[in-house]
Design a protein that fits this description.
By secondary structure, this protein is an alpha/beta fold. It has 11 helices and 5 strands, in the order αβααβαβααβαβαααα. Helix 3 crosses helix 10, helix 4 runs parallel beside helix 6 and helix 6 runs parallel beside helix 7.
């Protein structure tokens, strides 16, 4: 028989199939992005970006519209390395950070967690992985900033009851990462809002890409502003200062 109707043995199978169908739709709708990097001759500071497709800027028209790209434009003297990988979960960030060896950075920005929401990473394991990654990041950076996506259940890509399930998962992943960040002295950029107050749900056409999940250029501008509000003042000042060139 061609294209047989799938048999769902358990009540949750249909919902899980809906999740996977939605994830595949997202992957097909927008292309894989190239992460923004820059390396000025005389850097005023350094930033390592790790994470998933949001760290690459998926959904933006060009790399310069991503969070990393907007930081590069704001701080032209800032050295930016971007090691993010499309589809990465939080567990995958550890290998990204370890790949730089002993190279040091002013800050490591971790943009991950969305795939852990959608693929149901167990929360106990998530906490353990995030704690280990935060420790690895602190070994080579003075500051660590976590910036997972906000309320993934509020975006228009999902229908009820999937939207309700994803919203609950988003809250739980957020709570786990907030606990890890606060206990280890890391920065947490909180993008979560209830659906009725979430700008990405209220004005999806303005902030979201064609897949209905990733931010577009305007959405990444919103994320960048949220990050800048949480960054230490001394770091922003130093990154803005031009470095004196040797004569």
């Amino acid at each position: 028989m061609l294209n047989p109707t799938p048999h769902f043995a358990r009540p949750g199978d249909r919902i899980r199939a809906g999740f996977m169908s939605g994830i595949e739709h997202v992957r097909r709708t927008i292309p894989v992005a190239d992460g923004f990097e820059q390396e000025p001759t005389y850097p005023a500071g350094s930033l390592l970006v790790a994470g998933d497709s949001t760290a690459l800027g998926a959904g933006a028209d060009e790399p310069g519209e991503s969070v990393a790209g907007r930081l590069g434009k704001r701080f032209p003297g800032l050295k930016i390395r971007n090691l993010a990988v499309d589809g990465a979960r939080i567990a995958d960030v550890e290998a990204q950070i370890e790949s730089v060896g002993t190279e040091r950075f002013d800050m490591i920005l971790i943009m991950a967690g969305g795939n852990d929401v959608l693929r149901f990473t167990p929360l106990t394991r998530l906490r353990t992985e995030a704690t280990r990654i935060n420790a690895s990041a602190l070994a080579i950076a003075r500051h660590v900033a976590w910036m997972p996506p906000g309320n993934l259940g509020a975006v228009p890509a999902w229908y009820w009851p999937m939207s309700r399930i994803i919203e609950r998962r988003s809250r739980r992943v957020r709570a786990a990462l907030v606990d890890v960040a606060s206990s280890m002295g890391a920065i947490y950029v909180d993008l979560y809002h209830p659906a009725q107050a979430d700008p990405f749900a209220v004005d999806a056409q303005r902030f979201l890409a064609a897949d209905g999940v990733h931010p577009n250029g305007t959405g990444y501008s919103y994320w960048t502003a949220a990050l800048l509000e949480r960054m230490p003042t001394e770091l922003r000042r130093r990154w803005r200062c031009p470095v004196m060139r040797p004569v």
